[in-house]
Amino acid sequence: MGAYKAKGETGPNDRGNLGRRFDAERKRAFLDILALTGRPAQAAQKIGVALRTVESHRSRRSQQYDEEFAIAYDESMELYREILQEAIHRRGVEGVEEPVFYKGRPATDAEGNPVGIRKFSDAMLALHAKRHDPAYRDRQIIEQHSTNVNAALEDLSKLSPESRRKLREILEDEGGSTSDVP
Fold this sequence. Notes:
Elements lengths: L23 H14 L2 H8 L3 H8 L8 H28 L1 E4 L1 E2 L2 E2 L9 E4 L2 H11 L6 H18 L4 H13 L9
Antiparallel strand pairs: 1-4, 2-3
Helix pairs in contact: 1-2, 1-4, 4-5
């Protein structure tokens, strides 16, 4: 990553004193780790801040909200998803070369070069197919969710006006539609 430039905000640590502030340098380190691992909790732990601190800098409802950090966080997760897609493609479509062993030692050809075999992952190929061809996707889940939407919308009308206001606020923060909230 490295392109993130923070406002220089720092925030209190939520879980005891880990001795670290979530400054611009730590934000950049967090984003770099996140892009490689896709695991926010692990990235936060590695830089020595609480996950709650990270989340408060992403949440629009927080006083520590940092819009540039929130955007960079999403970009880091997108980079991680690209890494996953490359791995799925490589293992499912291209295959991975694995060494061959004979009597506990790597097998070699007549010239002494190591011998390998290309292995493919059926599970990774299925994931790749699901992403690129709708015929392979899990339609039952989509159909199930669509039948439950109307029932859920009827239940929303039972919410108090304050709860509906909060729901609209959450949906707006997440970029969702508020038109179905009564």
